[in-house]
Design a protein that fits this description.
The chain is of the alpha+beta class and 134 residues long. It has a single domain, classed as Mannose-Binding Protein A, Chain A (Roll). The chain has 3 helices and 10 strands. The strands form 3 sheets. Strands 1-2-10-4 form a 4-stranded antiparallel sheet, sandwiched between helices. A 4-stranded antiparallel sheet has the order 6-5-7-8. Strand 1 and strand 2 form a beta hairpin. The relative contact order is 0.24.
C-alpha cells in the first residue's frame, strides 16, 4: 500500500498543478463534457472549475503541456447566458476570450479553456482534454 501511495503522489507531482487547496490533473485522455464529468467523478474528483486567476493559471499550464483545449466545469445548459458551476452556483470569476461567450450556432452550452488561458463557449459534444480537480 505504501508503494501505491508514493506512486500516486509522484504521479500528481509530475502531472498535476496545484493552486490553493486544489490539485488539477490530466492523463492526456479526452472526452465530451458528460464523459469528462463522469471520468473525474469516478476518480474521486470534479471536472476542473477555476474560481480565481491562480486556479485558471494552473489549469492553463496543463492545457499548454498537453497542447489541447479542455472543458472546464462551467456551463449554461439550464439557462442560456447564465453560466454556472456544476454545483449550480453562479460563476464569480471568468476569463472569456474577446467576443465570448457568443453561443455560436445556438448550441454552445459548455466552456473550454484555450491554450492562452482564455475561455470559449463550445458545444458539449466536442471532445476535449479531461482535467480533474481534487
Amino acid at each position: 500500500m505504501y508503494c501505491a501511495s508514493v506512486f500516486s503522489l509522484v504521479w500528481i507531482f509530475i502531472n498535476g498543478n496545484s493552486a490553493g487547496e486544489k490539485t488539477f490533473q490530466a492523463n492526456g485522455s479526452e472526452g465530451d463534457f458528460e464523459t469528462s464529468k463522469a471520468t473525474c467523478s469516478q476518480a474521486g474528483g470534479l471536472l476542473a472549475s477555476p474560481r480565481n486567476s491562480a486556479e485558471n493559471t494552473a489549469i492553463h499550464q496543463i492545457v499548454v503541456r498537453h497542447n489541447k483545449k479542455a472543458f472546464i466545469g462551467i456551463n449554461d445548459i439550464q439557462t442560456e447566458g447564465t453560466f454556472k458551476y456544476l454545483s449550480g452556483e453562479a460563476i464569480r470569476y471568468s476569463n472569456w476570450a474577446a467576443g465570448e461567450p457568443n453561443n455560436g450556432g445556438g448550441t454552445e452550452d459548455c466552456v473550454e479553456i484555450y491554450p492562452d488561458g482564455r475561455w470559449n463557449d463550445r458545444s458539449c459534444n466536442e471532445k476535449r482534454l479531461i482535467i480533474c480537480e481534487f
